[in-house]
What we know:
Elements: H1 14-17, H2 21-50, H3 56-70, H4 74-110, H5 116-147, H6 156-182, H7 190-215, H8 231-234, H9 245-268, H10 274-282, E1 283-284, E2 286-287, E3 290-291, H11 300-321, H12 328-350, E4 359-360, H13 361-389, H14 395-417, E5 429-430, E6 433-434, H15 438-466
Parallel strand pairs: 1-4
Antiparallel strand pairs: 2-3, 5-6
Helix pairs in contact: 2-3, 2-5, 2-6, 2-7, 3-5, 3-14, 4-5, 4-7, 4-14, 5-14, 6-7, 6-11, 6-13, 9-12, 9-13, 9-14, 9-15, 11-13, 12-13, 12-15, 13-14
Amino acid sequence: MTTQAHPRGRNMSKATQAHPGGLYLLFVTEMWERFSxxxxxxxxxxxxxxxxxxxKAHASDIYGTYTxxxxxxxLIGGYIAxxxxxxxxxxxxxxxxxxxxxxxxxxxxxxxxxxxxxxSGLLYGGLxxxxxxxxxxxxxxxxxxxxxxxxxxxxxxxAFTIFYMGINAGSLIAPIVCGSLGDTGNPADFKWGFMAAxxxxxxxxxxxxxxxxKYLVDPQGKPIGMAPKRHHESGEKVVHAPLTRVEKxxxxxxxxxxxxxxxxxxxFEQAGASLTFFAEExxxxxxxxxxxxxxxxxxxxxxxxxxxxxxxxxxxxKLGQRNNEPSSPVKMALGLxxxxxxxxxxxxxxxxxAPGVKVSMMWLTSLYVLHxxxxxxxxxxxxxxxxxxxxxxxxxxxxxxxFLSNSAANKFAGTxxxxxxxxxxxxxxxxxxxxxxxxxxxxxxxxxxxAASLILFLLSMKLKKMMNGLS
Length: 471
């Protein structure tokens, strides 16, 4: 991946153009944490339906509530890190809590047949630990990426693209490993998938703990992510200066764009619920005499990210060299557009499809690839935007607010997944829109994402102006 030189022109050597070692430590730490999260997610709804015997609507509701809360607690974790613990301590605490949560799911899977009540209790308890741990971990590791670079460094967008590849390297292998171990057709095997997710989280913790002191430093060599100094420790009174007009406008951009992100992730996150139902029930998964587990399809997106992230980074770099690189809001509007096109493709593929009839896996594969294009236009760009626009003293908190929009989106995703049509149940409706078949269901996301994309395109010039020179 091409990186850009430090903009200040001081000793433009190869060393200054390279990314700091701390980026790759955060890459590996996040990779294994995402392995843990996405490994669990790949088999989560299948475990509830096949082992705990929940119906789809109930499983979708739990899925939406869980993923919604996963992205709500970073607001709290970001505040604790900014005011009290610092990034490092928060990341370690979050990792420990998430490892405990994964192993509680392992025990839930171990006793689902013998003691259903205990298994359900362990499920909810494990989800609680995962939610709390993620709140401490997620905003703090993301905000540390930006702290590795001087203010205004042009490498930050590129750094977040590399970091994002780490996220997707973990989520690429997770469904394959955890799905192979857990999604075998035998409900008793789900526990092994959860165990693998737990060991992934432990590995993330070990790597971070061993190398944090050596690599997590700023350009001057000072450690980053430490607990903030209080006035009684430093002998100085800590004063939080009021926000300037420029800072207020930049923070407003984050809040406005976050609202549009809700429409993206609520459709994108169908991968863990309704699209898993579609893969399980109405996708022909036979390949060369073998049946591909439904959970494996969740690896298509991260595979595509790893393949196409360098391509998108190259495109943005080339456009930037010609002074034609679109602003961050325009890129994010493009992300919503690709999302809508993905659902339009699969809506065409299932048009007139009778219940029980299975379609080629190419339809689902095409959807995931197009959604990946949308994700690459929106997600790493959004993370970078938060770091660039936030005052340093509010970075972790604003990262938490960014994830707050993801929280609302994931809860909304679960609600929308409950609308997945079932011939044995009454026809679901959404704001007066009747969903009689899969075509109607997928077209709902086409309309929702398409409208959000158009509105964000129309607002993009105003938002660029409010960014006051940043893009």
